[in-house]
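Weekly structure sync, notes
Attendees: PL, DS, HV (note-taker this week)

Item 1: UPF0145 protein KYN89_07595
DS walked through the input record. Source organism listed as Alteriqipengyuania abyssalis. Sequence as pasted into the shared doc:
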Amino acid sequence: MASPWRTAESGIIVTTTPTVEERPVQDYLGIVTGEAIIGANMFRDLFAGIRDIVGGRAGSYEKVLKEARHDAIQEMQAEAQKLGANAVVGVDLDYEVIGDTGSMLMVSASGTAVRI
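Item 1 (cont.): predicted structure, written out as tokens:
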């Protein structure tokens, strides 16, 4: 059983499931998205601090990706809130290399804004 994730800032429930258990959808308000882009300089800085790797994991790199994911979700929640939603269901997170030289990474979050 998946549990919804809610941030204290917005109070908007975010879940990858199509519904929130025992809370039927009253209104579907539309698709909402949020994006965060990490630039090339950040990657260079991260790899410069490669000694941060512990047990085969790059802690700094994971921290930056986590922050980018959080920012994308927050942006999506803000868009949902503007529509009058109190939840976003069916959330999908994507990671995409962008730019002519693949020098940036975009984290995007999308889902359906609903009122439950």
